[in-house]
Amino acid sequence: MILRSAILLLILAASFIFPADSSAEIKVLSSLEGKWPVDIEAEDDFLYTLDYGFRVWDITDPKNIRKIGQYDKAKDAIWQAKPDFIKYEEGYGNPKGGGGADYGGYNQIRGMGIGNFEGRKLAFIRCAHQGIQVLDVTDPAHIFNMGGRPDLRKNIEVADNAGKRIKVKGENIFRTYWDGFQIFRYSSVAALKNMGPYEYVSEIKRGGFGGAANDIKISEGNQYVYIAADNTMDVYDISNVWAPICIYTYNNIRRPYQKIENKGICVATGNNLLFLGTSKDLRIFDISDMRKIKTLTDAAGKEVIYPSSGSVLDIKIYKNYAFLYYGPTEVTKSSPETGLEIVDISDPREPKFVDAFILGKTDRTDVARKMALIPKKGIVIIGVDAFYVLDVSDYIK
Q1: What CA–CA distances, in Å, run from 363 to 86, 94, 324, 328, 330?
Q2: β-bridge pairing 311-318 and 27-32
Q3: Any idea what the Cα angle at residue 328 is, between residues 321 and 48, rounded to 5°?
Q4: Tens-digit pLDDT profile for residues 279-312
Q5: Which residue of 134, 154, 211, 212 has the lowest C-beta tally within 10 Å?
Q6: Residue 74 — φ and ψ, nearest 5°?
Q7: Domain at 211-397, CATH homologous superfamily
Q8: Which residues partner with 213 through β-bridges?
Q9: Coil, strand or helix at 141
Q10: Starting from the edge strand earliest in sequence, which strands make up the sheet with 132-136, in order?
Q11: Angle formed at CA 314 by CA 311 and CA 319, multiple of 5 degrees
Q12: What is the 3-state composition of the chain as percent helix, strand, coil, each rounded to the nearest 5?
């Protein structure tokens, strides 16, 4: 009896040391062309990537992903874009010395949003000095530029190149800038082709205390906007897009590190939870009642703060797992490893490390790096110095 009890105890202990499915693992399937990746989006059997140029991929077979369309600066003198973090390569610096907002006048790529307008598939490319470039990508084999929209700057008092993200939801286009975001739309594809004016919807100026707006997410029902900024995370009710209302602000990002700098980088939602990725960790909020958003606390009453393997650059949620793309930023550049970390959030008050895959080391410290999670394909695609395709099917079943 004593021996049997001892064996049962050993088995129980082993179940805590080794995961139930110890054979599960993350594997690299392939890498896709892309120097200095900036943004990535997936829709149906298509993948859209942005770096020095814009590319479309057929991901019907995740083990044999094919490039089916491309558009880069060589095709159009207007679209002379370079990622904004390449500040000094190839003369990419302010000719007067130093850095500053104008890195030699190059049109810097910041992000993209993919949307459907009147049966056309359009890519809105966020650039620093050319406002927004619009590509018609309906036929990936014949992508063409519909023109730039530098006039978007007229409603912004700060430099246009401070913005980082652009997202498309329904008829609305959301664009972040230094301390706020704008919502606008176009009346028709014809207006786009004729470089017609956009319809200005609304603008939110959060105030300089929030810092740069690094990420923006829009809820599935198009009712809420989530903003991750340097110093705060904000939630806005946009049920009336003409007059967004801030319903929650979280301003404890720098805690508990006190004098050690920490910044908000990205946001994600899932399972009635809101996730904030920072330079140091992952934080979780209960949004089951949007009128009473609150930070999650553990059994001891302390705020749930999961210490990630590096700065959390992007977050994807699927069922009981949080997929974290981590890497170095200015805050964590002494740790150059970058990769994918999987966290068990079945009990969000006690998130647990599941697995991690180190893709390598990088000297990039910008936050303009994203990933795509495609559950039905069982893959994650991460942009580092190329776009890496990772098999995570063992965790998506």
Answers
A1: 12, 21, 19, 8, 10
A2: unpaired
A3: 60
A4: 999 999 999 999 999 999 999 999 999 999 999 9
A5: 154
A6: -65, -20
A7: YVTN repeat-like/Quinoprotein amine dehydrogenase (2.130.10.10)
A8: 229
A9: helix
A10: 81-83, 107-117, 120-127, 132-136, 144-148
A11: 120
A12: 15, 45, 40
Q: Helix (H, G, I), strand (E, B), or coil: what is residue 144?
A: strand
- Over residues 205-210, the mean pLDDT reads 64
Q: Tell how strand 337-344 and strand 294-295 pair up.
A: unpaired
Per DSSP, helices labelled H in 209-326 are none
Nearest C-alpha neighbor of 180 from the set 154, 160, 200: 160
Whole-angstrom Cα distance, residue 77 to residue 330?
Answer: 33
Instruction: State whether the Cα torsion 170-179-249-272 is positive or negative.
Output: positive
As a residue count, the chain comes to 397
> What average pLDDT does range 247-265 have in this prediction?
84
Spatial distance between the Cα atoms of 210 and 250, rounded to a whole number of angstroms: 10
Q: Are 302 and 314 in contact (CB under 8 A)?
A: no
For 250-270, the DSSP string reads E--TTTTTTTS---EEEEEEE
Q: Which two tokens stand for residue 43?
A: 């829709």
- What pLDDT is attached to residue 366? 79
Asked whether 241 and 183 are in contact (CB, 8 A), the reply is: yes
Return the closest-CA partner of residue 340 out of 320, 352, 319, 354. Answer: 354
Q: Where are the domains of the chain?
A: 53-205, 211-397
Between CA 387 and CA 81 the distance in angstroms is: 19
